[in-house]
């Protein structure tokens, strides 16, 4: 209200000031007109001041009423909160009082229970002393009746229980092993069969010689040269022995290294086609042929990676892959073997839900240590692992290469897949050529190992050494002992011998009763 009055007075004062100014002007002009104008302006100022005053009074009243309503609402909310807090406090007090009463009752019950337990413990101690005395008397009477001490009776009981438990354990072991074999064989055969059926295989035979056909025997004289200079220069340049004998229209190239033998064959073909055969020309042609073979090796490695869908392989590894084309292992071409293992690994990894691309990569590179440029004196698995590490291969691939002959510990299931697929590729019929002497030696070792067991009557290694049948004496060996013998013998074979695939051990126990009617 004070603000409104002050505003009105200010407006009135302003009007009065304006009137005075006009009155002063009226002195110079028409005083009457000036007075009328002044009176009119004063009247207008008074009206405006009155309207402003009334408007401000209304605004002040509205603001006062609004503040009063907010204050009343806040006070009501605080009163409600105080009442709610008071109710909660009362409820907590009641709850605490009830809990205190319940606790007091529990303490009283516990105290009575403790007293009962103490009394029962005293009774139990008394009965225990009485039972101990009775037991000692009974033991003495039993020892007197049985004519043996308690320790001797206990030992006899333990021995009988041990024998019975051993028999039951053997029966359970047999059941568990049979069930595990059924399940494991079923799953393993399914995966391996799916893998083998989906992978094409080829047969390979290792050769140490190549036959070079010629049109007529006159070419032999040119190849030998005057006093044998040409043939000596050719053998020195290629490292391959030339056998020029009475075989019609043929020259034999002899060398254990297929790469050198291929270089010699191509170089000899060029020399015979060109007709100029002399030591300088021989060295030139051998050098060109060697370069051509190196380019062909790189192309073979690149084409192999493209065929298998392997990308990002280091150029050095790609070159070694191509070089495997001219290497063999037990008559099996190394590149063909590695391609076969790569496909087997990819299929088996896909069947087991693993990374098929990494498995295929590891399968292709697992024998990379067999074709190094230098003859390092380390196992080929470790050498291949070192080469793969140097070429920044994936750690899983590196471990699979190094562990496929158990040189290092496996860290990923793909390593086990590579090892299994390597065995599948090498152990299938016709894949590799085995030396007769080592084959016969393995058969004899199998039979000798079986004959070293007590109670063995005869042993036979059959099915090309993939099954060992052992015939035992029924009087000396029980059925349970025969079961144990088959398990133990299979473990010894697995730990002490090297062989492709698996060997089945069959222990045969037979009881025959013969009588004659006369």
Question: Can you characterise this structure?
Answer:
The protein has 518 residues and is mostly helical. The chain contains 15 helices and 8 strands. It has helices at residues 2-28, 31-146, 150-197, 218-224, 229-238, 258-274, 279-308, 315-323, 334-352, 356-365, 380-390, 395-403, 413-427, 436-451, 479-496, and strands at residues 209-213, 241-243, 250-254, 328-329, 332-333, 456-462, 467-473, 504-510. The strands form 3 sheets. It has a 3-stranded antiparallel β-sheet, covered by helices on one side. A 3-stranded mixed β-sheet has the order 6-7-8, with helices on one face. Strands 4-5 form a two-stranded antiparallel ribbon. A hairpin with a 2-residue loop joins strand 4 and strand 5. Helix 7 (279-308) packs across helix 8 and helix 10 (356-365) packs across helix 12 (395-403). The longest helix is centred in the N-terminal third of the chain and has 116 residues, at 31-146.
């Amino acid at each position: 209200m004070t603000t409104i009055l002050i505003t009105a007075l200010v407006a009135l004062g302003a009007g009065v000031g304006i009137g005075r100014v006009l009155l002063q002007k009226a002195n110079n002009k028409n005083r009457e007109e000036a007075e009328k104008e002044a009176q009119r302006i004063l009247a207008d100022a008074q009206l405006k001041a009155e309207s402003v005053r009334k408007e401000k009074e209304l605004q002040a009243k509205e603001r006062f009423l609004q503040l009063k309503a907010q204050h009343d609402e806040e006070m009501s909310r605080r009163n409600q909160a105080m009442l709610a807090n008071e109710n909660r406090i009362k409820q907590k007090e009641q709850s605490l009082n009830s809990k205190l009463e319940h606790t007091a009752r529990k303490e009283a019950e516990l105290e009575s229970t403790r007293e009962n337990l103490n009394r029962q413990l005293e009774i139990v101690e008394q009965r225990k002393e009485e039972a101990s005395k009775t037991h000692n008397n009974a033991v003495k009477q039993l020892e007197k009746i049985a004519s043996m001490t308690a320790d001797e009776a206990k030992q006899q009981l333990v021995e009988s229980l041990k024998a019975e438990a051993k028999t039951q354990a053997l029966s359970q072991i047999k059941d568990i092993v049979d069930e595990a074999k059924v399940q494991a064989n079923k799953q393993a055969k399914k995966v391996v069969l799916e893998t083998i059926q989906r992978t094409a295989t080829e047969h390979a035979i290792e050769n140490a010689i190549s036959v070079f056909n010629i049109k007529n025997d006159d070419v032999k004289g040119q190849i030998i040269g005057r006093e044998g200079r040409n043939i000596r220069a050719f053998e020195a340049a290629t490292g391959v022995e030339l056998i020029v004998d009475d075989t019609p229209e043929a020259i034999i190239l002899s060398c254990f290294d297929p790469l050198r033998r291929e270089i010699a064959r191509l170089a000899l073909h060029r020399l015979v086609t060109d007709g100029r055969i002399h030591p300088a020309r021989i060295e030139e042609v051998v050098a060109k042929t060697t370069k051509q073979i190196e380019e062909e090796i790189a192309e073979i490695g690149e084409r192999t990676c493209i065929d298998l869908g392997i990308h990002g392989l280091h150029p050095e590894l790609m070159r070694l892959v191509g070089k495997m084309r001219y290497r063999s292992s037990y008559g099996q071409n190394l590149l063909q073997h590695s391609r076969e293992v790569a496909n087997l690994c990819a299929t088996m990894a896909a069947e087991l839900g693993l990374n098929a691309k990494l498995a295929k990569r590891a399968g292709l590179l697992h024998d990379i240590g067999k074709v190094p440029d230098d003859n390092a004196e380390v196992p080929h698995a470790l050498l291949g692992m070192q080469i793969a590490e140097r070429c920044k291969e994936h750690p899983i691939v590196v471990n699979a290469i190094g562990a496929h002959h158990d040189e290092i510990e496996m860290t990923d299931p793909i390593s086990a897949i590579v090892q299994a697929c390597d065995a599948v590729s090498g152990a299938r019929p016709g894949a590799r050529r085995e030396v007769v002497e080592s084959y016969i030696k393995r058969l004899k070792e199998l039979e000798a190992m079986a004959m070293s067991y007590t109670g063995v009557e005869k042993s036979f290694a059959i099915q090309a050494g993939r099954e060992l049948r052992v015939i035992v004496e029924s009087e000396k060996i029980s059925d349970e002992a025969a079961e144990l013998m088959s398990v133990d013998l299979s473990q010894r074979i697995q730990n002490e011998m090297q062989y492709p695939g698996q060997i089945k051990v069959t222990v045969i126990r037979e009881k025959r009763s013969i009588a004659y009617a006369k």
